[in-house]
Amino acid sequence: MMEKYISIYYRLCDVTDGQNELIEEFSKDYPYHCILGIGELLDEFERQISEIEAGHEFDITLRPEQAYGEYSDEKVVEIEKETFVVDGAFDNENVYEDAVIPLRDEDGNYLKGIVMEVRDNSVIVNLNHPLAGRVLNFHGGVIENREASNKDVNNIIEEYDCVGNHCNCNCNCEDNNSKHQGECRCRHRRRE
């Protein structure tokens, strides 16, 4: 099966309970682009946009079970504080309320958690995705939707090879006021 390259612009809003809170936005000038089928997009969103031709708009709403799942109280865990000891002292530079921290589960899989509370002997961490339980609406349009060339695949790989405080994709992220802290406008996380 041939891989597909897609370039889209959109506004992603949380529309749970009638609200309309902007979460993320990619413009026509700084679109989101990727190779479909590599797990970068939500499955249902990818399925729906993969069939939309260039030049057409979309308005896609995903229920929690189609996006990041329902919020689960079971994913709020208490971890012993000693887990976060570095050089004999608790790592308060990285482990504090609202911090996003990298963790590993018992199978060695990497995951991220949000610190909810630092207690005397433990840390309460929320392992739910920040958008778990939310109804999400993507409103935008397709700029390109075509078979991916080897150059497209290589460009996407290079974009993931970010160094310093900018990436290698010539998006001028250091000159743009990115809405997303820690990411450039082309959506690729900066390595710090």
UniProtKB/TrEMBL annotation:
Q: Which UniProt keywords apply?
A: Chaperone, Cytoplasm, Isomerase, Rotamase
Q: What is its main location?
A: cytoplasm
Q: Molecular function terms in GO for this entry?
A: peptidyl-prolyl cis-trans isomerase activity
EC main class here is isomerase
Q: Which reaction does it catalyse?
A: [protein]-peptidylproline (omega=180) = [protein]-peptidylproline (omega=0)
> What highest taxon heads this organism's lineage?
Bacteria
Q: Where is the PPIase FKBP-type domain?
A: 22-74
Pfam families associated with the record = FKBP_C
Tell me yes or no: is Protein transport among this UniProt entry's keywords: no
Q: Where in the cell is it found?
A: Cytoplasm
GO BP term (any one): protein refolding
- GO CC terms, sorted: cytoplasm
Q: Which InterPro entries match?
A: PPIase_dom_sf, PPIase_FKBP_dom, SlpA/SlyD-like_ins_sf
Q: Which Gene3D superfamilies match?
A: 2.40.10.330, 3.10.50.40
Q: Does the keyword Phosphoprotein apply?
A: no
Q: Give EC number(s), comma-separated.
A: 5.2.1.8
Q: Which family does it belong to?
A: Belongs to the FKBP-type PPIase family.
State its role: Also involved in hydrogenase metallocenter assembly, probably by participating in the nickel insertion step. This function in hydrogenase biosynthesis requires chaperone activity and the presence of the metal-binding domain, but not PPIase activity.
The identity of this protein, by name, is FKBP-type peptidyl-prolyl cis-trans isomerase SlyD
Q: What is the lineage of its organism?
A: Bacteria, Pseudomonadati, Bacteroidota, Bacteroidia, Bacteroidales
